[in-house]
From TrEMBL, chain A:
It comes from Paragemmobacter kunshanensis. Keywords: Oxidoreductase. Residues 170-422 form the FAD/NAD(P)-binding domain. InterPro entries: 2Fe-2S-bd_N (IPR042204), FAD/NAD-bd_sf (IPR036188), FAD/NAD-binding_dom (IPR023753), GcvT/YgfZ/DmdA (IPR028896), GcvT/YgfZ_C (IPR029043), GcvT_C (IPR013977), GCVT_N (IPR006222), Sarcosine_oxidase_asu (IPR006277). It comes from the Bacteria. This is Sarcosine oxidase subunit alpha family protein. NCBIfam families: soxA (TIGR01372). Belongs to the GcvT family.
Length: 1003, 456
């Protein structure tokens, strides 16, 4: 059994006992425990089920590479599926539940897959479930879906919050082991701004566990001193619990700081996502131990050797009473020694090498440990827990020599440097034969903007596996990085770690070497996804030879650990099967993040109402108070209508239209785009931008203008006012303001950079109100101030002045066909001005109206709306707007596009109005059908509706639309399709339905 | 009643309903006729074959596709062994009996966008020519597993495109009317129906409440790699040569007609050349002596860690820019936007991921505590109107298929079908007719971005 030892545990505080629960069972642990350590201390080795065969799964590792020990953590708004127990710090009241089983962890019916697993090899689903056809969707796939997935789907909204922060540094050091600490010391002393990140809660990495001695003292003492020294440097920042997730171009790094994972509900953000811009990045991310591939290596109790050591030394947890160590290198002996020193039984060290030798081997011998050299494990026995191992000759085929009773197996297959961050942005790898691993190729680093190396690497992450090498490597790497940053490293005495003489490791990819097919079908590579040696060999046999094919066919390395344990072993098996060298086979692509990052942290503070920026006009609060029903327009929210008690939206819109036509309507038009274009070349510039001529517009006047893109398609419209000799104010659509401003700057900065023009988007600097209706002038006169008479301010002119004491700019323009003034005031006056208009207008029948009434009124007048009559394929000529296109100008944006044959053709769909024969409203989006079908069998069309409304003014349906040669077909009856089948008949008419001669707006 | 028996009854009910609606089509593989003598011997896949092999530790399975050396010349060469290239080859063989074909691949087959998309299949397009080819593709997907004797896991679980502004509502109503005439089955549904179909969706968001959705019940997802592998296996069985790790370095012509290609495995002659290389179309076109109105940008996607099923359909939310479905493994598969600059690195910037996730957490609040497992990028080839090019070229007997942009996976069978017809006959059939490359010169655009649904 696994249990808590009575002594030791460098990370736990025995005075702080904590209670937690696992599958409802109440258990105890200590502050400083990880959940995995606490589970093991309570003899809970079985923690989950595998993905495909639902085999029992135990804790394998002690770090983020853990593929098995994933739990549903917490509940309700704090449920977190797939949480790694090995990196979850224990807290009082923690609730965890195991995953992927039904009805229980101990008894899971899904395990039936295990009993028929020989029928379910890699890719079996590609070869079956083919007939009968509907069965895939209705029978096979639902069953597969039910049994797949790991953690539970949360049901509630996230109860926590997240924040994001920015950091800038000269050197970002990732990893707080001895290499990272030493690198930070070197860079810190050189004066560089250093940011040092460590994913765990504590510093020092493996060295204190491994018993290394630095400068004559235990490594732990050196680590404490180094951390203290770094904390004393003003130019150095240390951040623990902070995982560097991904490296992007130009020194951009994302890091996820787990602020309150271990103190949930204390009011702090759960995570803080750091967006770091670093001059250089130095990764000292260490290495991950590899499992060995022997039959039954997935049975709970089989663990990584170094992780067994971690549990003993860090948390005083014994994973087993009798632990067999199996290794191909000397490091495995450290585990045997640590176990023995903790008073635990190590019945044997099974060493695949024929002649192990070195300091650690000698020490094991001197402790009287049984060493089985040249041997391997033929098979692990046990179900939900290891009961014994059968050993055999490594060079043989698996004939059993001896069987050793044990309840744990500590395996070490060598170490793989953590090269993820190096690789994210293009760093290449080289094969290190001595350590049988890929490590960063210093000749091919990821590059920065200046062509220099963006990432440096140090310590075990660079293949410098021993403490002594790692410290030397870190010093050199940091000095190189600092020098590359243009600083000078200070001379300082480098720390020296006591050298341990270790014998060479020997690559072992399959144990035993000549294992039978039957044994290979029980050797797990990917524990979570149930990928075995036999599966990779099958993929190779079937021609899935590329490493990417093998990965995708077998799902090797696609589990939540993204192959941290399985990839290299799988590659080696593939290489053997293909009779190639490992480096030739290569690796799959390393992608961010290094370990999974919570989506909430990636989204940050932008949640709920502010998940996108919210733009409010100065009158926004008035609208809210007065019951506006809003619609989103870009990032604005505009009142769609102002329904009164008992009114539907439709009734409200009709009332607003009628009131405006008969009395007085007020519209908050502040969202309308307002761009100042100024300078000696401004007129020339606007003549290029608009289809019409703006340079000749007299000061004080307004002109309607159209803008097209380079293809000639209509992209925006609005009224332009000439403010002074060198200044124009361009109104754009509400949704188009930012786009059009960008468009202007694009041309000014990239093409016409020598033109003297300045633009400013002043949309939010002004509040704007449309005062519309027969009583509009009366209201302004009542407000008092400037002369707004027909004579003083004719249609399509503007004037500055004061109204009711407010500084105003009044435009005589109309989008409704009524007598209309659009009045701009500085934004700070907007709310007061709006309120003043309402107060003064009450006796004149003033009512606010929303965007829908605006739409109905413009449609009654036959005015086009960008986005309704246009969709990016419509040119002004299609809309009968030829009058707004200058024939005299040599050029304007879109002119050349409009000359192309398809656009210049007379055979285009053109704007007309439609009146249904029965007075009904044509359905939104309907097409005008034509006889017959096209070559693809689709019903032919000859036009479509673009705007269709019930007109409260005319008491019938009205519509505009595009019809093939429409203006030539007045009076004809056409048919619009409906989604239910059948058609609606409508007569082709002029699109101006109301006040055709414009008498109402010109009073 | 147990969990499994409930599930079973529900599924059988669905099956009966669907069978009653007469949706079932042929149950056997018409493709088998095309698998003629001389091809790579292909054992049929079935549950019986698996059972037989299980008894001998699966030692008897043969290569899914052969690994030949190039011959001196072919009747046709396809450059690019992605989904579109392999499908082109397959339909050349199946529909036109042209099997002396090589498919040349610079890397490994299916390694481009075929293997890195979000696997969505739908055909609810606005423009007639788009709807025609995407619906052809979707309908071929319906029986592709049977045709290829390879389970590509086409799963018509339904695709929903949310309308979250009044403008978007009008846009989707327009698409619904267009689809009605095009014979594409879609409907505009209410927010209540949206919630029924996808209970984890928040339809009352504070910013963009759901106003309805365009729903295509027979849209869905497929297993992307399997599409490439299934076509590759069938092509190989017809005797075609799929040559991986073979980069084309030059295009040779005589008298204005293509005669062969230079490759890293030597010169190979051909009577016809089909260029189907997505992001690298510009380079191949340059070798063939013409230019294309194409730009390459990175499109990103990501997956979460797997969780138990909570979302049965595909949801696309174009106003807020994000789309999501749940894979059979349980991962939430998430797609976002394209980067705003041209490049060839198959990775993306971070800010798009951030924007996408903000939108999706608002739309699906329960995903906030899931974790991003992996993010990646693919290079998409974009034309000026965001529609593909399936076209003759200025070089005789040289044809090109490119420009699928962000929507290529769903089109694979239809694209291959149309391209094969173009290559076999030398002239486009009705499916490809509108997609010629000269349309940009004439301004004859097939602009899909005009519909509210811009993303794929």
């Amino acid at each position: 059994m696994s249990t808590r030892l009575s002594k030791g545990g460098r990370l736990i505080d025995r005075s702080a006992a904590l209670e937690f629960s696992f599958n409802g069972k109440r258990l105890k642990g200590y502050r400083g425990d990880t959940l995995a350590a606490a589970l093991l201390a309570n003899d809970q080795m079985l923690v989950g089920r595998s993905f495909k065969y639902h085999r029992p799964r135990g804790i394998v590792a002690a770090g983020p590479e853990e593929p098995n020990a994933l739990v549903n953590l917490g509940s309700g708004g704090r449920l977190e599926p797939n949480q790694r127990t090995t990196v979850t710090e224990l807290f009082d009241g923690l609730e965890a539940a195991s995953q992927n089983h039904w009805p229980s962890l101990e008894f899971d019916v899904g395990v039936v897959n295990n009993y028929v697993s020989r029928f379910l090899p890699a890719g079996f689903y590609y070869k079956t479930f083919i007939h009968p056809r509907p069965f895939w969707k209705h029978v096979f796939e639902p069953i597969i879906r039910q049994s797949a997935g790991l953690g539970s789907a949360p049901k509630d909204r996230d109860a926590d919050r997240y924040e994001q922060a920015y950091a800038f540094c000269d050197l970002l050091v990732v990893g707080g082991g001895i290499a990272g600490l030493q690198a930070a010391l070197v860079a810190g002393r050189a004066g560089a701004r250093v940011l040092l990140l460590e994913q765990a809660a504590h510093w020092g990495g493996r060295a204190p566990v491994d018993g290394d001695v630095i400068d004559g003292k235990p490594a732990g003492d050196w680590v404490d001193a180094a951390v203290a020294a770094l904390e004393g440097m003003e130019n150095v920042t240390l951040r623990a619990r902070c995982m560097a997730a991904g490296v992007y171009d130009h020194g951009y790094v994302l890091a996820d700081e787990k602020v309150a994972d271990h103190t949930p509900g204390d009011g702090r953000p759960k995570h803080r996502l750091w967006r770091i811009r670093a001059g250089k990045i130095l990764t000292a991310t260490g290495a991950i131990e590899r499992p060995l591939s022997f039959a039954g290596n997935d049975i709970p109790g089989v663990m990584l050797a170094a992780s067994v050591r971690d549990y003993v030394v860090n948390w005083a947890v014994s994973p087993g009473d009798r632990t067999v160590v199996v290794t191909n290198n000397d490091d495995g002996y450290r585990t045997a020694i640590a176990l023995r020193e903790a008073g635990l039984a190590v019945p044997a060290i099974v060493d695949a090498r024929a002649n192990p030798a070195g300091d650690l081997v000698a020490k094991a011998r001197s402790l009287g440990l049984r060493i089985e050299a040249g041997r391997g494990i033929a098979k692990v026995k046990g179900g939900k827990r290891v009961t014994s191992v059968a050993i055999c000759l490594q060079a043989g085929e698996g004939a059993v020599i001896d069987e050793i009773a044990c309840d744990a197996v500590a395996m070490s297959g060598g170490w793989s440097p953590v090269v993820h961050l190096w690789s994210h942005c293009g760093g290449k790898l080289t094969w290190d034969t001595a350590n049988a691993c890929f490590r960063p190729d210093p000749a091919r680093p990821p590059l920065n903007h200046d062509g220099g190396a963006m990432v440096h690497v140090a310590g075990a992450a660079n293949g410098a596996m021993k403490a002594a090498e790692a410290l030397l490597d870190a010093t050199a790497a940091a000095e190189a990085a600092v020098t590359a940053l243009g600083m000078k490293p200070k001379k300082a005495k480098a720390p020296v770690a006591e050298a341990v003489a270790e014998g060479p490791m020997e690559a072992v990819w399959i144990m035993p070497q000549g294992a039978s097919a039957e044994l290979k079908a029980k050797m797990w590579l990917d524990y979570q996804n149930d990928v075995k040696v036999s599966d990779v060999q099958l993929a190779a046999r079937e021609g899935y030879e590329s490493v990417e094919h093998t990965k995708r066919y077998t799902t090797l390395g696609m589990a939540t650990d993204q192959g941290k344990l399985s990839n290299i072993n799988g590659l080696a098996v593939l290489a053997q099967a293909l009779n190639e060298d490992i480096p030739q086979v290569g690796t799959t692509t390393f992608r961010p993040p290094y370990t999974p990052v919570t989506l909430g942290a990636l989204a940050g503070e932008a949640r709920g109402e502010i998940f996108q920026p919210l733009r409010r006009t100065p009158m926004h609060e008035w609208h809210e108070r007065n019951g506006a029903y809003f619609e989103p327009v870009g990032l604005w929210r505009r009142p769609y209508c102002f329904p009164r008690a008992g009114e539907t939206h439709e009734q409200a819109v009709h009332r607003e239209v009628t009131n405006t036509r008969e009395r007085l309507g007020l519209l908050d038009a502040s969202t309308l785009g307002k761009i100042i274009v100024k300078g000696p070349d401004a007129g020339k510039f606007l003549d290029m931008l608009y289809t019409g001529v703006m340079s000749t517009l007299p000061v004080g006047k307004c002109r309607y203008g159209l803008m097209c893109n380079e293809q000639g398609f209509l992209s925006d419209d609005g009224v332009v006012a000439r403010i002074d000799e060198e200044t124009w104010l361009c109104h754009t659509t509400s949704g188009g303001a930012d786009r059009i401003h960008g468009w202007m700057e694009d041309w000014l900065q990239c093409e016409w950079w020598d033109w003297q023009v300045y633009t400013a988007n002043v949309t939010e600097q002004y509040a704007q109100v449309a005062v519309v209706g027969p009583n509009a002038r009366k209201l302004l006169e009542k407000m008092g101030g400037m002369d707004v008479s027909k004579e003083a301010l004719p249609f399509m002119q503007w004037a500055d002045g004061r109204l009711g004491g407010f500084p105003v700019r009044v435009y005589r323009i109309s989008f409704s066909g009524e007598l209309s003034y659009e009045i701009a005031v500085p934004a700070s006056h907007g709310a007061a001005f709006w309120a003043a208009l309402h107060a003064a207008g009450a006796e004149l029948g003033a009512m606010p109206y929303g965007t829908e009434a605006l739409h109905v009124m413009r449609a009654e007048k036959g005015f086009i709306m960008i986005g309704d009559e246009t969709d990016g394929t419509v040119i002004p000529q299609d809309l009968g707007l030829d009058w707004a296109i200058s024939k005299k100008k040599e050029d304007f944006l879109g002119k050349r596009g409009q000359q192309r044959t398809f656009l210049a053709s007379a055979d285009r769909w053109k704007l007309v109005g439609f009146e249904t024969l029965d007075g009904s409203v044509i359905p939104d989006g309907s097409y005008i059908v034509a006889p017959g079908v096209n070559a693809n069998g689709q019903g032919k069309t000859q036009g479509r509706v673009t705007s269709t409304y019930y007109s409260p003014t005319l008491k019938r349906g009205i519509a505009m639309g595009l019809l093939h040669r429409g203006p030539e077909r007045m009076g004809e009856v056409v048919e619009f399709n409906t989604v239910k089948g059948g058609t609606v008949k409508a007569r082709v008419v002029n699109q101006v339905f109301f006040d055709k001669d414009g008498e109402k707006q010109n009073v | 009643m147990s969990h499994f028996s409930r599930l079973w009854r529900w599924q059988v009910g669905n099956f009966r309903r669907e069978a009653a609606e007469g949706r079932e089509v042929g149950t056997d593989a018409p493709g088998r006729d095309a698998l003629r003598d001389g091809g790579h011997a292909m054992k049929r896949y079935s549950v019986f074959a698996i059972a037989r092999e299980a008894l001998r530790h699966h030692a008897g399975w043969e290569r899914a596709w052969a690994s030949p050396q190039p011959k001196a010349s072919y009747d046709a060469i396809i450059v690019g062994a992605g989904g579109h290239g392999l499908a082109t080859a397959y339909y050349l063989g199946k529909n036109y009996g042209i099997t002396n074909v090589a498919i040349l691949e610079k890397g490994w087959l299916g390694g481009g966008n075929t293997g890195r998309n979000t696997t969505i299949i739908r055909s609810n397009y606005l423009q007639d020519s788009s709807a025609a080819i995407y619906e052809k593709a979707r309908s071929l997907y319906e029986t592709l597993s049977q045709d290829l004797n390879y389970n590509v896991m086409f799963s018509p679980r339904g695709v929903m495109m949310l309308a979250q502004t009044h403008h978007e509502v009008r846009g989707y109503l327009r698409t619904a009317h267009a689809n009605k005439l095009q014979g594409v089955e879609t409907e505009f549904i209410t927010p209540q129906r949206v919630k029924e179909l996808c209970p984890i969706l928040n339809i009352d968001g504070p910013r963009y409440p759901v106003l309805g959705a365009l729903w295509q019940a027979r849209g869905g997802t497929g297993r992307h790699d399997a599409v490439a592998w299934g076509y590759a296996r069938a092509c190989s069985a017809m005797g075609m040569d799929i040559i991986q790790q073979c980069e084309v370095t030059g295009v040779r012509s005589e008298g204005g007609k293509v005669v062969g290609v230079d490759t890293t495995k030597g010169y190979i002659g051909t009577k016809k050349l089909g260029i189907v290389v997505a992001g690298h179309s510009g380079q191949l076109a340059e070798m063939a002596g013409f230019r294309l109105p194409i730009e390459a940008v990175a499109l990103q996607a990501l997956v979460s860690e797997p969780i138990k099923p909570c979302m049965d359909i595909v949801v696309m939310a174009n106003t807020v820019h994000g789309y999501m479905s749940q894979s059979d493994k349980g991962e939430m598969v998430i797609g976002g936007g394209t980067d705003g600059f041209n490049n060839y690195t198959q990775r993306g910037s971070f800010h798009h991921i951030e924007e996408t996730l903000r939108a999706l957490i608002e739309t699906f609040p329960i995903i906030s505590r899931l974790k991003m497992l992996r993010q990646w990028g693919g290079i998409v080839d974009m034309t000026g109107d965001r529609s593909p090019i399936i076209s003759k070229t200025p070089l005789g007997n040289c044809f090109i298929n490119c420009g699928w942009g962000t929507g290529g996976f769903k089109a694979i069978p239809g694209s291959g079908w149309a391209m094969a017809e173009l290559m076999a006959k030398g002239e486009p059939g009705p499916l490809a007719a509108e997609f010629d490359m000269w349309r940009f010169k004439e301004g004859r655009f097939i602009d899909e971005s005009v519909a509210a649904g811009v993303a794929h």
